[in-house]
């Protein structure tokens, strides 16, 4: 299939791998930020084809995984109300809250619907003016423009029975938190290409300079990832720390100005808790005062909830790159995609799900020498 096969060409992949092997002279650890990249790496065995001295650390860039437990519990409470139609992308339905998930709410009679776009939820609100329709607006910079545009459209059309439960997160503050963590082993980043296609690259040079790390904007197909790694190891070997765009077919330095304007009009930066990680200052977006009436947290006045995370789940360490999923004792035994203990086993971008799909028959990964104990300080 053209455009897919083009970026899977085994001969080109071999050439890129040969270049990487010829370039690397010492150990390097780099983090791929995005869960989509993690899945591509594990699915194609890219990490197993690299020199043994190049480690890919899986980052926290899975939106479903980092949505805080308290927000999941708020979603469950709102979705349980008889006057509510609760709309969400399918990934969120099996994410465990403190005591249940959205599937359980649905099985008990809650009106929980899977939609493919926030505009679908807005359409449902138009059809059911007597019901409150809530869309679970989670994700990184990639999903924020569509959610912002939907709220904008709701106001333009005068649709008042629609609201957004917002849990948006931003990549650059997460990179900063990762670099500031005392146990950080990351020496370079493969930045998420789709995030940069929205936001451009302007936020990254300062981070690259401050923390002396190469940041290479990378795509998602096997050749994209190999090219991102090749450019990264070249910089590392030469002692450089620049922002480099290895995904120019999708990413312009200035990003998507129309999408950025829409985000700026509807959202404002806020501190945000990341599940398993902690609060990262300035790492989220919330609706501005001008759009507050469309904020589901505000509309339903969900009180602060007591949350209860599974004590067996080590997804916080997985998300910080401190352990690999198959280091967790519950991996593939008590925790599977059908019986997930943590969000990283549920999401199509979760690292635990990727290892379960493609690596569950492998021996557990050798412990990483510098991995700290579970009590390690949270990133935030
Ligand atoms: S395997 Fe399951 S229990 Fe272990 S860290 Fe991953 S999601 Fe949590």
How would you portray this structure in words?
The C terminus is likely disordered. The strands form two sheets. This protein has a six-stranded mixed sheet, with helices on both faces. It has a five-stranded parallel sheet with strand order 2-1-7-8-9, with helices on both faces. It has three domains: 135 residues, Rossmann fold (3-Layer(aba) Sandwich), CATH 3.40.50.11750; 150 residues, HypD, alpha/beta domain 2 (Rossmann fold), CATH 3.40.50.11740; 45 residues, no CATH class. It has 16 helices and eleven strands. By secondary structure, the chain is an alpha/beta fold. Bound molecules: iron/sulfur cluster. The site of iron/sulfur cluster has 16 residues, from helix 15.
The low-confidence runs, each spanning 5 or more residues with pLDDT under 50, are 366-380
Mean pLDDT: 91
CATH class of the largest domain: Alpha Beta
- State the end-to-end CA separation: 43 Å
Q: How many helical elements?
A: 16
Instruction: Please give the number of β-strands.
Output: 11
CATH superfamily of the largest domain: HypD, alpha/beta domain 2
| CATH arch. level architecture of the largest domain | 3-Layer(aba) Sandwich
Biggest sheet character:
6 strands, mixed
Strand order of the largest sheet: 4-3-5-6-11-10
Share of residues in strands: 15-25%
Number of domains as seen in the coordinates: 3
Bound molecules: iron/sulfur cluster
């Amino acid at each position: 299939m053209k455009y897919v096969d083009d970026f899977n060409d085994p001969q080109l992949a071999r050439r890129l791998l040969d270049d990487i092997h010829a370039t690397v002279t010492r150990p390097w650890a780099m983090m791929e930020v995005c869960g989509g990249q993690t899945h591509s790496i594990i699915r194609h065995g890219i990490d197993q084809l690299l020199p043994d001295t190049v480690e890919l650390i899986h980052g926290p860039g899975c939106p479903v995984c980092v949505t805080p437990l308290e927000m999941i519990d708020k979603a469950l409470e709102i979705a349980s109300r008889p006057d509510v139609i609760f709309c969400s992308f399918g990934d969120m339905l099996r994410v465990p809250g403190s005591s249940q998930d959205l599937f359980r709410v649905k099985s008990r009679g809650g009106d929980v619907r899977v939609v493919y776009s926030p505009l679908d939820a807005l359409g449902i609100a138009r059809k059911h003016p007597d019901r409150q329709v809530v869309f679970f607006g989670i994700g990184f910079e990639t999903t924020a423009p569509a959610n912002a545009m939907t709220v904008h459209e709701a106001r333009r059309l005068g649709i008042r029975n629609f609201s957004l439960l917002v849990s948006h997160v931003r990549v650059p503050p997460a990179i900063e938190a990762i670099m500031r963590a005392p146990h950080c082993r990351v020496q370079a980043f493969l930045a998420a290409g789709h995030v940069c296609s929205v936001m451009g690259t302007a936020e990254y040079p300062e981070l690259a300079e401050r923390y002396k790390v190469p940041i290479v904007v990378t795509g998602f197909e096997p050749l994209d990832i190999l090219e991102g790694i090749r450019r990264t190891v070249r910089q590392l070997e030469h002692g450089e720390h620049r922002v480099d765009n290895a995904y120019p077919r999708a990413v312009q330095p200035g990003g998507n100005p129309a999408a950025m304007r829409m985000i700026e009009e509807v959202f404002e930066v806020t501190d945000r808790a990341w599940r398993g990680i902690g609060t990262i200052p300035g790492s989220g977006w919330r609706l501005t005062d001008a759009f507050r009436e469309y904020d589901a947290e505000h509309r339903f006045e969900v009180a602060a909830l007591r949350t209860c995370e599974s004590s067996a789940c080590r997804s916080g360490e997985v998300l910080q790159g401190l352990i690999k999923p198959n280091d967790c004792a519950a991996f593939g035994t008590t925790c599977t995609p059908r019986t997930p203990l943590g969000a990283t086993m549920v999401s199509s971008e979760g690292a635990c799900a990727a290892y379960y799909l493609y690596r569950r028959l492998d021996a557990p990964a050798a412990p990483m020498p510098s991995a700290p104990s579970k009590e390690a300080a949270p990133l935030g």
